[in-house]
Write a structure and sequence with these properties.
Distance between the termini: 33 Å
Domain Reverse transcriptase: 24-243
Largest sheet: 5 strands, mixed
Keywords: Antiviral defense, Magnesium, Metal-binding, Nucleotidyltransferase, RNA-directed DNA polymerase, Transferase
Order of helices and strands: EHHEEHEEHEHHHHHEEHEEEHHHHHHH
Strand order of the largest sheet: 5-7-8-6-9
Structural class: alpha+beta
Strand content: 5-15%
Shape: flat
GO molecular function: metal ion binding; RNA binding; RNA-directed DNA polymerase activity
Helix content: 40-55%
Family: Belongs to the bacterial reverse transcriptase family.
Catalytic activity: DNA(n) + a 2'-deoxyribonucleoside 5'-triphosphate = DNA(n+1) + diphosphate
């Protein structure tokens, strides 16, 4: 019912460095200037607001991915946690509440920045049972300006562990009542297969709020949603998916938007399918159609067929850029083909050559042949994880 670390203990900073295939000095140097290893930007949210995101540099990204592989992915997470866990995405989260009669959905306010460095240190010290020096260094490598940044490779795992010592108690009590609890990072959902009295619903929200408050979090009160099948007008929703008919579905309004985007692709490709805007539109729409397919919406197959006929192409300028990229890769000597950056450029080139092949199969065949003679000497996982 609670997370369990299945990995080996790390008894010293030197042992941590060996586990991450780096030197102790490298780790300390990066940790000492970690805030300078991020690029801050904003992305638009579905409600029209903006979310601050901090993207790590390639150097820090490699370190964080190794922390994930050697430490954080070796946690056995309980079944009520979703997000950054294999086969436990937002769809599976919604499915855990299928056929619910009542759903209570709450959102945690500023979840990532509310996880402070002291809390991250405590996770590595008290959950993983690492010594202070190791816990302190890992806390530095997983935080920015004293808090967990949204966008770091390690942040979702840390977010899943932020309530490791208390959440399981609430879950156990709720299960004894026949209720289902789940958390996808900062989205908490509680459902009941039968009607609940209004007082019990209100007390559920209070219980969650008290649990969160004990660890420095607060609820986004305006985002708290209570829906019941007893009220036909209520939208039964979990992490953006509609549950009124039992199995998770995409809402009609969202499906209408996807249909319009598919139609937009069909119309725009007749005039210009080479612009960066069209590439972005088609890629985004393809992802949304894939979501419909995952949820077994019948229109997904029809949309996929339409998108196959409207794939983006490259302009002569972009084809020339692709040729130059391949030429630059072919100039790299064998000893330079084992870095993460080279591997990234190599696969970027292969992706671009595939697009070239939509209009010039002969050129694409030639470029692929040239790339095949300059393949990376190390797998991507080995370059990243050591």
């Amino acid at each position: 019912m609670r997370p369990v670390f299945k990995g080996k203990p790390i008894a010293s900073v030197d042992a941590l460095a060996r586990a991450l295939d780096l030197s102790s000095q490298q780790l300390r140097t990066i940790a000492g200037s970690v805030s300078g290893h991020y690029r801050d930007f904003e992305i638009e949210k579905r409600d029209g607001g903006f979310r601050s995101v901090s993207g790590p540099t390639e150097e820090l990204k490699i370190v964080q991915r190794r922390i994930n592989r050697q430490i954080l992915t070796r946690v056995d997470f309980p079944s009520y946690l979703y997000g950054s866990i294999p086969e436990r995405d937002y769809v599976q989260n919604a499915k855990s509440h299928a056929r619910a009669h009542v759903i209570v959905a709450v959102d945690v306010k500023n979840y990532f920045p509310s996880i402070k460095r002291t809390a991250v240190f405590s996770i590595f010290k008290n959950f993983f049972h690492f010594p202070d020096g190791v816990a302190s260094l890992l806390a530095d490598l997983c935080t920015k300006d004293g808090q967990v940044p949204q966008g770091a490779c390690t942040s979702s795992y840390i977010a899943n562990l932020a309530l490791h010592d208390i959440e399981h108690r609430l879950v156990s009590n709720l299960r004894n009542e026949g209720l289902t609890y789940s958390r996808l990072i900062d989205d908490i959902s509680i459902s009941s297969p039968r009607p609940l009295a209004q007082k019990r619903v209100e007390s559920l929200v209070i219980q969650v709020a008290e649990m969160l408050k004990s660890r420095g979090f607060t609820l986004k009160r305006p985002k708290t949603k209570i829906a019941s099948k007893s009220n036909a007008a209520d939208l039964m929703e979990v992490t953006g998916l509609w549950l009124n008919r039992g199995e998770p579905r995409v809402r009609r309004e969202e499906r209408d938007k996807i249909r319009k985007e598919v139609r937009q692709c069909i119309q725009e490709c007749r005039f210009d399918r080479t612009s960066s805007e069209y590439h972005e539109l088609h890629n985004r729409t393809s992802g949304r159609v894939a979501m419909l397919a995952q949820l077994s919406h019948p229109e997904a197959g029809r949309y996929r067929s339409a998108l196959k006929l409207t794939t983006p192409h490259y302009s002569p300028v972009e084809i020339k850029k692709t040729c130059k990229l391949v030429a630059s890769i072919c100039k790299v000597p064998v000893r330079g083909r084992d870095s993460a950056s080279y591997i990234h450029r190599f696969f970027q080139a292969r992706y671009r050559v595939n697009i070239v092949g939509r209009t010039d199969t002969g050129l694409a065949r030639e470029l692929h042949h040239r790339l095949s003679r300059h393949a990376p000497t190390m797998k991507k996982e080995e370059a990243i994880y050591g």
